[in-house]
Amino acid sequence: MVGPAWQYILIRGLYTDKVNKSRKAFFTPVKTFAMFIIISFGIEFAQYYNLYDVTCDPLDFAAYISILLPLFLIDYFRQPK
């Protein structure tokens, strides 16, 4: 659950003030949130359809939303206008 959240922080450059402006402009909060939801849900659907040998847990969908949505909202509302 913390993997996608940590990757969101790394990609957005929220861990430092020294971030490449072009990277921050490309990876907007909305685009980054959408990217991680699509990837995370894609992995869960692949598990559900037995594309590889693991167990699907439907609560993982809620787990991804519960960590990524607050992170996105904090990031979105911290953006300069």
What's the gyration radius in Å? 14 Å
| Oligomeric description of these chains | single chain
Shape: elongated
Estimate the helix proportion, in percent: over 70%
Poorly predicted runs of 5 or more residues:
none
Biggest sheet record: none
The total of helices stands at 4
Structural class: mainly alpha
List the helices and strands in order.
Answer: HHHH
How big a fraction of the residues is strand? under 5%
Task: Count every beta strand, where a strand is a DSSP E run of 2 or more residues.
Answer: 0
Separation of termini?
30 Å
Average predicted confidence as pLDDT: 90
Report what the structure shows:
- The chain is mainly alpha-helical.
- 70% of the residues lie in helices and 0% in strands.
- The chain contains four helices and no strands.
- α1 packs antiparallel against α3, α1 (2-12) packs parallel to α4 (59-78) and α3 packs antiparallel against α4 (59-78).
- The chain is elongated and about 45 Å long.
- The chain starts with a helix and ends with a helix.
- 11% of the residues are buried.
Topology:
Elements: H1 2-12, H2 21-26, H3 29-48, H4 59-78
